[in-house]
Amino acid sequence: MKKIHLIFALLLALALSAGCAADPAKNPTPAGSAEIRFTDGKVTATATDGITIDGTTLTVTGAGTYLLSGSCADGRVKVEKGVRGVTLVLNGLTLTCENSAPILCGKGSEVTIEAAAGTENTLSDTAANNDETGSADAKNAVIKCKDGSRVVLCGTGALTLRANGKNGIKSGSTTQDGEASLTIRDLTLTIDAPVNDAINAEAALTVESGTLTLSAGDDALHCDYTLNIGAAGTDGPRITVTSCYEGLEGAAVNICSGSIDIHSSDDCINAANADLTGFSYQLNISGGTVTARSDSGDGFDSNGDLTISGGNVTVWTANAADNEPLDADGTVTVSGGTVLAAGGSGGMGMSLAATQPCVIFTGSGAAGMNMPGPGTLGGASLLTQGTAFTVASADGTVLYSGEAVYNASFLFFSSGDLSDGESCTLSAGEAQTVSTAQTGTVRTGMGSRGDGNIGGMGGMGGMGGQRPDGTAPPSGGFNSQKPDGTTPPERPTGTPPQTGPGGTTI
């Protein structure tokens, strides 16, 4: 019976492993499998091929599928440098590591970490897993993927990471050890990382699918280069960011599908990396549903262009100074989708190319910004937090209805249901504000051009990373500031290829 049970468990692990692969034919399951159980005193295994055991430390030295279960208050799993074809199936594993990473993927390794169907798994570290304040063996993450490693997190089970040291997941850079990447699919993943980032990747980060619930002291999802969310023609992931400094950050951020909800203190989505030179910063939204709100920063902030070509986008900002819902150093282009962007500021800094009709409401009721009163930068109040409102076409058809997340002096709306030149009405209680839908080049900002619109201040877009207290960040750039006011660690320079999902060049 014991042999039958073992064979069944291994067959189940192999089936789940194949299900995690984007193309199972390209990821054959290697030989060498073992069922491994953690306890507080030791690690036991049904086979010893491809592994070594030292107390409560498991080291994977060869390709294989390893089924991990049990509970240990101070243990770890290490995949050695250069080992490929490794699948770690978490089958009801609760593992804490006192002074290092519970799971470590060595340089140049290729590892799949899978949560088995119907299981709940928890990985934790302690404050000692931080090389700035903790032990010499600290790896700064609950799951640490070293330079050149290619790691996939997947499975239909659940995985919870409690990052008490620094990051939840840290993926390294592309080096001579290999082209680094981190991919997430299918998984139900919960990360609490109050010290730093929930997920931090130095090379490439792709969230294809799954359900992610993230809270972070700094960024929820961070990538030094290209961050891809979902893919065209798919449902994409469901991502909920309950609290963070910045929500999604990458030098290029591409959202193709999924449901994303972000609550941040600073920028909700930021396309930036002050340590790169010659990089074409981009924020592209082509599909999915994005709901974002910032307490004191920009909604979407790009150090280059910001393009919305599809999806359903709602973004709110509370800051009444110089932070706005849509901000770009380059051009904000809206060519599709349904977009509502509203904030406490008067919309300063948005240079817009609208190929799809849009309508802009401000406290003055016109497409331009109401001139500010003494001591303020925003216009007169347009919406009060908690107030229900509608945007309706000239014939009374309601195009959008919602509730104001913050007080707003500026509201931008674009939809395929709008017609260029038609009169639209914003209604909130007894108050109504009328404006006209338009296409082409639209500018909002301080200073009238004398043609009924307002002269743009697109160059101000770089101020999107200003600290919440209004003070200027260091010379490294407005978007390089950490929550504690310090400068982040140096990141790699250069201009690698910028690719979207599926390897398409952007």
How do you describe this structure in short?
The chain is mostly beta strands and 506 residues long.
Structure description:
It contains one helix and 39 strands. The strands form two sheets. It has a 21-stranded mixed beta barrel. The protein has a four-stranded antiparallel beta sheet with strand order 35-34-37-38, with no helix packed on it. With 506 residues, it is mostly beta strands. 52% of the residues are buried.
Strand content: 35-45%
Structural class: mainly beta
- Shape descriptor reads elongated
Radius of gyration: 25 Å
What proportion of the residues is helical, as a percent range? under 10%
- Please state the average pLDDT score: 83
List unreliable stretches of 5+ residues. Answer: 1-19, 23-32, 365-379, 445-506
The biggest beta sheet, please?
21 strands, mixed, barrel
How many runs of DSSP E, i.e. beta strands? 39
N- to C-terminal separation? Answer: 56 Å
Tally of alpha and pi helices: 1
Attribute tags:
single chain, 506 residues, mainly beta, 21-stranded mixed β-barrel, four-stranded antiparallel β-sheet, 4% helix, 43% strand
Which helices and strands appear, and what pairs or packs with what?
Layout: H1 2-20, E1 33-38, E2 43-45, E3 51-54, E4 57-60, E5 64-72, E6 76-79, E7 86-96, E8 103-105, E9 110-115, E10 120-124, E11 141-145, E12 150-154, E13 158-162, E14 167-171, E15 181-184, E16 188-193, E17 199-201, E18 204-207, E19 211-216, E20 219-229, E21 238-243, E22 246-255, E23 259-264, E24 269-271, E25 282-285, E26 289-294, E27 300-302, E28 305-308, E29 312-317, E30 326-328, E31 332-334, E32 338-343, E33 350-362, E34 388-392, E35 398-403, E36 410-414, E37 423-428, E38 431-436, E39 438-444
Parallel strand pairs: 1-5, 4-6, 5-7, 6-8, 7-9, 7-10, 8-11, 9-12, 10-13, 11-14, 12-15, 13-16, 14-17, 15-18, 16-19, 17-20, 18-20, 19-21, 20-22, 21-23, 22-24, 22-25, 23-26, 24-27, 25-28, 26-29, 27-30, 28-31, 29-32, 31-33
Antiparallel strand pairs: 1-2, 3-4, 32-36, 33-36, 33-39, 34-35, 34-37, 37-38
